[in-house]
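ingest -> validate -> predict -> emit
validate: passed (alphabet ok, no gaps, 144 aa)
predict: started
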Amino acid sequence: MPVTDNPIDRIIDVARGVLDPDPTDVENRGTRRHDYGGLVAFVQWTPTGGKSISTVVRCKNISSTGLCIQSRYMLHVGHEGALLMLRSSGEEVMLGVKVVHSAYVGEMTHESGLEFCEVHENFSVDDFRDEHGNMPRLTGNQAA
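emit:
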C-alpha cells in the first residue's frame, strides 16, 4: 500500500481504490478539496459510443471523490470517460470519471464536476495520444 505525505498523491490513491479516505478529508461540501491548478487530459464516451479526442484542461481542485475542471466547452452530465493526470513523482495515472455537474462561469469558460469511478475496460493510456502518437503535455499541481 503506497504511503505518501503529498495530499494530491493520496487523493489519487483513494480514487484508484488503493487507500481509504481519511476522516479529515470531510468538509461541509462532503469532501475536502485541494487546490490543484495543473493540466490534465480528458477523454469521454461520445453519444455514438466511440471515444472523443483527448483534450487538455485545467484542474481547479481535487478531492477524494472527484475533481473540478475548467474548459471552453460544456460537458454533459452523466457522460463517463477517463482522465490522465500526474502524481508528484511525474508518473501518469489514468482515472475513471463521470460528469456530475457543468456550468458556464463566464469569459468562455465552463467548470465541470467529475466524480471518480472505475476506469472502463475499453479505455487505455493510448486513447490520450494525438494523431501523431504523442502524449499530451500535462503539468502537476500548480497550487503547491
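Residues 7-128 form a domain with the Thrombin, subunit H fold (CATH 2.40.10.220).
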